[in-house]
Amino acid sequence: MSDMRESFLSSLRFRTKALEMALATLDKGGEDALVSIARVVQQLDGSSVEYGFPGISTCARAVLDASDEDIPIATQELVDYLKSVSRAAAAVSEGGTGVEDVAIVESPDVPAEESRTVSVLHVDNDDVVATLVADRLSRDGFALSHFSDGESALAEALLNPPDLVILDVKIPKMDGFELLAHLRSSPKLAEVPVIVLSSMGSERDVVRGFDLGANDYVLKPFSPSELSARVQRLVPAS
Fold it and tell me: pTM, whole model, 2 decimals?
């Protein structure tokens, strides 16, 4: 089993726990729970097929497509499936031969190129911008993962390197310029295209972005269609 595949499987435990916590909050009427669920599910939908788990992607897509009243049921089904995958993976590592185990073992034999979706990591703490970007790029065939702070985005990028990163500069915990510097200093991420999407449009800011290694710099307010065109110039959708 590849290191990246093992890392993905290891991350399922934490993502499952995050979904369970969000579900518990959702039962109490917590509005932030929907945002948390959407964030985790988008991450799973964007990376699971690439690592040979199309079933996870199917369940994740069911959550994303569900109505508000059906989200709890769809999310619980995803949680149950994630747990079954984790159990099967553990069984395989111990030499298990169950039906689920076979599915885990056989999935890497499917060429990733046949079903791989280009992944885009978006970092912005503005929910409106996040929605605009996700809607446009998803319709254009890209798999989106969204984070609202630099530290979480960097951790995800190191675990699941994306094909492209779109980042704002004014984000909490680690600003966009610092995040860009970390991306360029990482051997795994140094060549990943980065688009800065920001309202900081002074000559000094734009020059700094390019000096740090940005491939493009787009100013807010922006056109989602134009942004998608710029993304496709750097990493054409499959």
Answer: 0.54
